[in-house]
Write the structure tokens for this entry.
Amino acid sequence: MRNLTVMALILYCALFIPGVVLANENLTPSGIPLKDLESYVDEYVEEFIGETTAGANVVVVKDNQIVLSKGYGYADIKSKIPMDPGTSILEWGSVSKLFVWVSVMQLVEQGKIDLNEDIRHYLPDGFLTKLTYDEPITMLHLMNHSAGFEDRIFDLGYASKEKVESLEEGLKKAEPNQIYPPGEVVAYSNFSTSLAAYIVERITEKEFDEYVSENILEIINMNHSSIHLPKEENEEIIQHVTKGYELIGIGEFRESTPFYMSMYPSGGMNGTTDDLAKFAMALMPQGNKKSILFDELDTLEQMLSTSYSANDNVPGIAHGFWEVDGKKKGFAHSGNTAAFSSNFHIVPEENFAVIVLTNQAGEADITFGLTKALIGESVFHPVANAPDSFDVEGTYISARRTDSGFLHLYYYLTPLKVKSLNENEIQISVMGMKGNYIQEEPYTYRFVNGDSVFLPMQTLYFQVDEGVVNQISTTYSDFLPMDKKGEMLAAHGILFLYCIVFFLVTALILLVRCSLHWRKKKAFSIMMRWNAALHLSGMALVVNVMVLMGRMLVNSNRAYSEIIIHFTLNYLFTFTCLLSMFFVIWNWRKETLTKWRVIVYSLSMLSSMLLITLLIYWQFYF
């Protein structure tokens, strides 16, 4: 009987357990059968392709095999060229950063980089000129985006390849101020990543694109990708570069400008979706095999281990990869350029990966929505006796922001607002877009529904001290309590609007008066002439500022040299304003003025001083 029982057990295991294992192997982490995967993805993307998304390539990897590779929509709408995961060359945006961190870990493995060493040890003397704090910046700080740098837009990307300089020169030109102590705040930083790539250059004595080509792309046969497109000589790659688009209305797309970078390691890679799938497989070797990218298995394990987390209950950062709390732990990175969006997501425990590349600016429905549907979510457990969500209400500003120059105004005009809906639920809003979150751990909230822009922000963790929120930790960037009151911002907005109306209207009145005086051959008094100069200078200031803001809204990918003319003009018109004001005051007692003219002249000078004060406060002079 014992032998029969053992035999029966063996037979049962042979017949049924492999079937269970096979069934699990033939599912996505979210539970979708692989045999139904293509039809599921087809149905999912149908809602967006041609409506809100120009085109997309989707590749899914399971057990080191591509189980789905399919293009949707057009690589070139006008010419009706379809998207193709194997040939369409798309901009990867910040997915490029992963190649920096793999390069760094290769050198860590060789003992050439210490993650905890002051990075100045690897840089030329005096290379960083805008450091504020004495605490050293380490490579781990760069990987965790916690070096404390402000975000800088100028000289990040260009519409023309002719403006691209060397990585070293690009870093020098775009060096930001350090506005946070190292290690205290996560503020996503393109500069940090490119600085790490420059360190790789210094250590290996090779240009970064050459190092990556030799030590990553060639090793895993990524033959249809380029780390630095302006230097690319492969005609096949150049020939298949995809056009990028901006959405201007449902089903309406406008072709966007190309995107070239001096700091290309942060977002300048171009290539096929199938090539990124090869990269994903290299990061997920099966069994106890080491990755082809490293000599030791431990190096890959170290890279995909947590290097920073704000709290044990929330996903953190794994040496440059973003941790994702799905049904199984994932590691991801997304990217955006002027006209492309991407998402790269691996789940090593399931040997599963999803790569989505689109030629659509700011796309999230497919890049994040589809990925989430295939990866699945962890089990949701609302916390009992949780702190009241009213505690976290408030207005917050992104830690990833420009702190110097007039662009810092933008971040104050687009804050993150948190509103309590009930004891356990909050609603956050940015620029009219809203997302709802439910508390599942004390002060930890999970996204449940809302606008797709919040899909990358699945988890919010509020750091609360004595009932006061000090910081919100999210994917990519922390948020800090607003340091300027909304009433003050509103007042400044009203005052600036007043200045616009005042100087434009008075300039028009002045033109009419000049015309009438000219017809009557009547001369202006000296006082009236200087007052007119004051009005025209104020109007010129207003127009110059409005043109500057308009140019940045149309295309923010500009070199600083492109807009310096506006700052020069601001100084010039401010000087003429002050000079005119001086001569108005100088001649005040020399003329007999009516009460009306006293009011007009006084209002002109006060309005001019108000405008100049506002421009100084909001840094429109540099």
